[in-house]
Amino acid sequence: MTAAALAIEENRPTAAWGAVMSMALCVAMLIASEFMPVSLLTPMAHGLGATEGQTGQAISVSGLFAVAASLLITTAAGTLNRKWVLVATTALMLLSLVLVAAAPSFAVLMIGRALLGICIGGFWSLATAVIMRLVPQDDVPKALALMFGGQAIAGAFAAPIGSYLGGLFGWREVFWALTPIVAINLVWHVVALPSLPTAQKQDVRTMLGLLKRPYFRRGLIACMLSWGSAFTMFTYLRPFLEQVTGVGVTGLSILLLILGCAGFLGTWAADRLLTGNVAPFLKLPALVMGGATIGLLLLGFSVIAAALFMAIWGAMNTMFSVIWMTWMSRNADDAPEAAGSLMVAAIQTSILLGAVMGGMLLDSLSIQATFIGSIVLAAAAILLIGNGRKMLKPE
């Protein structure tokens, strides 16, 4: 082991839970910023003179730039201290929110969303690798569950509050309201994150090496299908609830609150269930969330049924992230940053394609066609995953 590597080992904290909490808040703000257009899709479209399908591309463009950033960040960052890379990505999120809130046109909105995509790609590429350095190995699933608790918080409060406040004050004010929270998070990062020097620069060869491993390649494709299914549906959930369930702004806010609060159950379950073999859990997201989408398609005209299926979807949504990032941490532990880059690229590509495909189906056919597309992708994921054993590193 080199002297630099030994220095990193000596400086590694036993368990920096304050830093984990800071990252959890950053996750909450990233999720809120990335998917806020879902709850504000209709008023944003009207305010910018665009269709709902076009405005849905505000999510896909952030995904496009997140893909590029995720593949480049670990190489571009070189041996820079990872603490300051995370601080820089959070500052970029703050700038993005200001641009979106003040956007005088659809083009400026898309520029702001592109900057957010760079932040998303940069943060998520490093997040799991950083968590693996902040806590002992046995505590990694717990720390991941805690970090993704930020996702549950964003899911529980960002969308319903965003929808409600957007109806009262306007969609721009919702984005302005996020900026002071992100500013606080920026300061918290500086204070709480320990120094995270890296002695080795990741490069493209490391990523290609991972892709040559059949189990990792299969898992990556399955992950993409699962995420693509989820966000083909989720991006266009508001038009479905308005057109099929027939709810107004208040009803929409309540249903989104139910979906989000159910996410806390998913985080709680992930913390307790992911202690052993992860293989049996890999197909659960596509199976459960795909099943919930079928339920909405068949019974979504009922508010009570819609609430039930959205709660099921929301609970699995937060567990989803912990399951797949735990899989990554255990099956690519020799190259966590490169694996993180590939995982983020795969997930963001899926979100991008899901938003594009869902928007095309919505504009050209119907909202029901969008949900059917989501179900088809979930079925493909389930078939590929099987019992999950072919996606585990050989012992």
Automatic annotation (TrEMBL):
Q: Which residues form the Major facilitator superfamily (MFS) profile domain?
A: 1-395
A GO cellular component entry from the record: plasma membrane
Coiled-coil annotation reads: none
Where does the record place it?
Answer: Cell membrane
Per the UniProt entry, the signal peptide is none
Listed PROSITE patterns: MFS
- The residue ranges crossing the membrane are 15-36, 56-77, 84-104, 110-131, 143-162, 174-194, 215-237, 249-269, 281-301, 307-327, 339-361, 367-386
Where does this protein chiefly localize?
Answer: membrane
This protein's record includes keyword Membrane? yes
State one Pfam family annotation.
Answer: MFS_1
Record keyword Repeat present: no
- Tell me the protein's name: Putative MFS family arabinose efflux permease
Organism, as annotated: Sphingomonas leidyi
